[in-house]
Amino acid sequence: MRISHDAFGQLHLAQFLAAEDLEELRGWEYLGRRWIGEASGFTEWLRLESDPGVTRSVAIDLAALPEATAQRMLDALGLPLRAGLDQQDITGVFGKPIDTERFVRDRVTLVFHVGAADPYELSCTVHEERGLIHLTMHPTPLPQGPTAVQ
User: Suppose 125 and one of 9, 22, 86, 134 were both cysteines; which one would form an S-S bond, judging by CB atoms 3.0 to 4.6 Å apart?
Assistant: First the structure.
């Protein structure tokens, strides 16, 4: 991983997509916390309600974004990935996943802990025909705050 938690926290979806393509999120519940952020379809960049100035979670819908835009996002995150990679390509980069989830028959989500100095949880959803189509990434550990959902 080549991105520090500080640099990750300063990224915003508006740096990559036009304002008219963005939706503002408020009161979003995810990972047991409440978030605000920016979204475009299933691409979501989130900040904790308790710390609204710092990006703490990123989801990128690689299948829906223009390839050049998606690649700029991946490069900014320091991820040596690209849309369409297969499971073998991804495990070749990050090693064995800590978890494998299958919610839909034609795709699998590989979960990794990546980065030594600034660790992250990275989840890569791989479609059996189209390869890498979606990913989520957040620093670990996420802070516990007053906006945690009980």
Answer: 134
* Tokens of residue 120, six digits: 């992250």
Q: How far apart are CA 91 and CA 109, in angstroms?
A: 12
Which among 45, 46, 24 has a CA at the least distance from the CA of 35? 46
Q: pLDDT for 4-59, tens place per residue?
A: 999 999 999 999 999 999 999 999 999 999 999 999 999 999 999 999 999 999 99
Length in residues, the chain? 150
Please enumerate in sequence order all residues whose Cβ is within 8 A of that of 123, keeping only pairs 6 or more positions apart, or say none.
Answer: 101, 109, 110, 111, 112, 135, 136, 137
Parse the chain into domains and list their residue ranges: 5-139
